[in-house]
Specification:
Largest sheet: 2 strands, antiparallel
Order of helices and strands: HHHEE
Number of domains: 2
Distance between the termini: 117 Å
Mean pLDDT: 82
Number of helices: 3
Strand content: 5-15%
Helix content: over 70%
């Protein structure tokens, strides 16, 4: 004797198989959807890195130009004798302080109020 609304063993097995297949299909769909997004991110990252690499290659190819510019700048820079360096450092500090306190510092470190 079966209860009203009770399903037979065969019906329960079919329902169980359909549920399992649906769960596997859902899992596969989620897996492949995630993979597709990962591929899209990878493509974007690859394009960005390729552009960066091309910019770096262009800079490397222009190395002689950069070296020439650096040499030009180096030749224009003033040379400071090592014995003169501490005095130059202190002169800069004194000039900055003088400007801050509105004091004029002339040759020989004579100061006058303005």
């Amino acid at each position: 004797m079966t209860m009203p609304g009770a399903k037979s063993r065969r019906d329960r097995m079919v329902i169980a198989i359909v549920v399992v297949v649906a769960l596997y299909a859902l899992a596969a769909l989620m897996w492949f959807t995630g993979r597709r997004d990962a591929w899209e991110r990878s493509r974007k990252d690859y394009k960005k890195e390729l552009a960066r690499t091309n910019r770096e290659k262009a800079l490397i190819e222009d190395r002689s130009l950069w070296e020439e510019r650096a040499e030009t700048k180096r030749l224009r820079m003033p040379l400071v004798d090592e014995a003169e360096m501490p005095a130059t450092r202190w002169e800069r500090i004194i000039e900055r302080l003088a400007a801050e306190y509105h004091v004029s510092v002339g040759k020989g470190l004579k100061a006058s109020q303005t």
